[in-house]
Specification:
Layout lengths: L6 H12 L4 H10 L2 E4 L22 H15 L4 E5 H4 L5 H10 L3 E6 L18 H21 L3 E5 L3 E2 L7 H19 L5 E5 L9 E2 L4 H11 L3 E6 L9 H10 L3 E6 L16 H15 L9 E4 L8 H20 L3 H9 L3 H13 L3 H11 L5 H7 L2 H9 L1
Parallel strand pairs: 1-2, 1-10, 2-3, 4-6, 6-8, 8-9, 9-10
Antiparallel strand pairs: 5-7
Bound molecules: manganese (II) ion.
The site of manganese (II) ion has 5 residues, from loops.
């Protein structure tokens, strides 16, 4: 029997029709969501204290791509995989990686330079007082643009570990000027190719006194100085406690400068936990801003929906499937918000009424809708359960050891 004939789906449809929701339109929008998983989320990872090895964890880029393909196979909405230049393609042979990904039904998503591991980056990369470090970083980023082009990737994601550890260590303004100069040179190389440069901000870590791109405002200013193809990348784990993330999302979308997300979740700092695992209501409120903006024809919502997380002890592929499912669930709930009712309540200054509309959508069990959606997309109704029963993990554990 098809899930679309189930009583639970019929009851949900009736309820949503009553709210004026077009359920077919909701499904179309859910089908159109494209998520990107990170290559680095499939290999062994850890904290600064220890790396606990997982049986069957991917050991190279081919295995990472194989694992990413599993996430897409079971969810149907994660066809992109992000590449970390030095970790994944140290020899620069991106064409082979691209072809292998395509043979498994994936495409290369964002290209991520690595300007934080080499010893020369001790005092930073593009903002470093060391000219040699700045030049090395710039050379590498320019190479990444070439690789991205070869890979068919449209996005260069820049995260710089630049910052200082002690007051007085370096001059804030001089660092800012060096950074601006470097970013402009990157932008000049990338914009004519039609690519987008994303600038990711982070409050602290690895630097502990100051970070050169510490928040969205600094990233936004740097983007404005480069040009319209430079946009802000928001990693959900890169804010201070209590920061209203959905407000930043809304503000940046309205300014046309929200370029992408790095989805994950945090309890304390940049914890890289499963998206939606700690604060699912926040994730819903973020998607609520996206869904609302998508319905405003005056706004462009060309946003890259990327995941940036690494499960240190949770099984990695299951973690990624869980995240994809949590993102899809949050989006589905955001799409069934009664927008007209919400606007009416806001205009009537009815605080309780407005909040109830959001909570009603958030508390709606959308699983009957997602089962029908997945059936229509030809993927299992419960991707996680299906993956567990597929025997994939058992096979790679025996093959990879
Ligand atoms: Mn990130």
């Amino acid at each position: 029997m098809s899930f679309s004939n189930s009583d639970e789906y019929k009851i949900l449809c009736e309820k949503l029709s009553g709210r004026g929701i077009d359920i077919e339109a909701v499904k179309e929008r859910l089908k159109a969501q494209v998520l990107e998983t990170p290559s680095w989320g499939y290999g062994d990872s850890g904290t600064r204290f220890a790396v606990f090895h997982q049986p069957g964890a991917a050991r190279n880029i081919r295995e990472k791509i194989e694992d990413a393909a599993q996430v897409h196979k079971f969810t149907g909405i994660a066809p992109l995989v992000a590449i970390h230049a030095l970790w994944d393609v140290p020899d620069g042979r991106i064409k082979e990686v691209k072809e292998y990904a395509e043979s498994l039904g994936l495409r290369i998503g964002s290209m991520n330079p690595n300007v934080f591991e080499d010893q020369i980056y001790r005092f930073g990369s593009l903002a470093s007082p060391d000219r040699g470090a700045r030049e090395k970083a710039l050379d590498h980023i320019l190479q990444c643009i070439e690789m991205a082009e070869e890979a068919g990737s449209r996005i260069l994601s820049l995260w710089l570990a630049d910052g200082t550890n002690y007051p007085g260590q370096d001059d804030f303004r001089r660092r800012k000027h060096r950074l601006e100069e470097g970013l402009k040179r990157v932008y000049e190389a990338l914009a004519p190719k039609g690519m987008t440069m994303l600038i990711e901000y982070k409050l602290f870590e690895p630097a502990f006194y100051h970070t050169d791109v510490a928040d969205w405002g600094m990233a936004y200013v740097l983007c404005m100085k480069c040009g319209e193809r430079a946009k802000v990348l928001m990693d959900l784990g890169h804010h201070a406690h209590g920061v209203n993330i959905e407000h930043i999302v809304s503000f940046l979308i309205d300014e046309g400068r929200l370029g992408g997300f790095h989805f994950n979740n945090k309890k304390y700092a940049d914890d890289d936990l499963t998206a939606g695992s700690i604060n699912p209501y926040e994730l819903f409120l973020i998607y609520n801003e996206i869904a609302s903006a998508q319905e405003d024809p005056s706004l462009s919502t060309d946003i890259a929906f990327m995941i940036d997380q690494a499960a240190n002890i949770k099984p990695k592929i299951e973690d990624m499937i869980q995240t994809v499912m949590n993102l899809q669930t949050a989006y589905a709930k955001a799409l069934i918000v009664d927008r007209k009712g919400l606007r009416d309540a806001q205009e009537a200054m009815d605080i309780v009424g407005a909040e109830r509309i959001l909570v009603e959508a958030y508390q709606t069990d959308v699983s009957p809708l997602l089962k029908v959606l997945r059936e229509e997309m030809g993927v299992p109704p419960d991707p996680l359960d299906a993956f567990r029963r597929s025997g994939y993990m058992e096979r790679v554990i025996s093959e990879r050891g």
